[in-house]
Amino acid sequence: MQIKKPYLIKTPVVLVVVILMLLMIWSGGYISWKIGIDQLHQNSQQQLDQFISHLDARLARFQFIPQLISKNTILVELLKHPDSNPHIDLVNHFLEDVNNIIGASDTYIMNSRGLTLAASNWQKERTFNK
């Protein structure tokens, strides 16, 4: 008569159960991680959309300025003849007035090379003027 060894029979069953438990733990962790990442993405997208709306609203109040300034003949002359223009002080004062009305931090006129020709902050120590 042969003696059965019960632990040999149960070993494969226990191994399968342990493997299944590990798979369930791993999949539960992965699902939790995925849900967390999705929530973070959704929250980030909402914050980005709010920031974009805020920025659009802030910038919208300045959208008419280039058109308004382009109608000023003295400003146009300054752009045409930047080195020999006697009206730079007048343009600086004009930009200062415009800046005070629209509530911008600074307003300035630049040439095509990026050189500032006139600025609303002309009287300050840290001006954009050349």
Main features:
mainly alpha, two-stranded antiparallel sheet, 2 strands, 2 domains, 130 residues, single chain
Instruction: Tell me the Rg in angstroms.
Output: 35 Å
Write down how many β-strands occur, each being a DSSP E stretch of 2 or more residues.
2
| Strand percentage | 5-15%
Shape, principal axes of CA atoms: rod-shaped
Task: Note the gap between the termini.
Answer: 108 Å
Helix content: 55-70%
Lateral arrangement of strands in the main beta sheet: 1-2
The major sheet is characterized as: 2 strands, antiparallel
Q: Structural class of the secondary elements? A: mainly alpha
Instruction: Quickly count the domains.
Output: 2
Number of helical elements = 4
Q: What is the mean predicted local confidence, pLDDT?
A: 86
Order of helices and strands: HHHHEE
Taking pLDDT < 50 over at least 5 consecutive residues as the criterion, the unreliable ranges are none
Structure in words:
There is one protein chain. The protein is mostly helical. It has two domains: 1-60; 65-119, no CATH class. 65% of the residues lie in helices and 5% in strands. It is built from four helices and two strands. The protein has helices at residues 6-60, 65-70, 73-80, 88-102; strands spanning 108-110, 116-119. A two-stranded antiparallel sheet has the order 1-2. Strand 1 and strand 2 (116-119) form a beta hairpin.
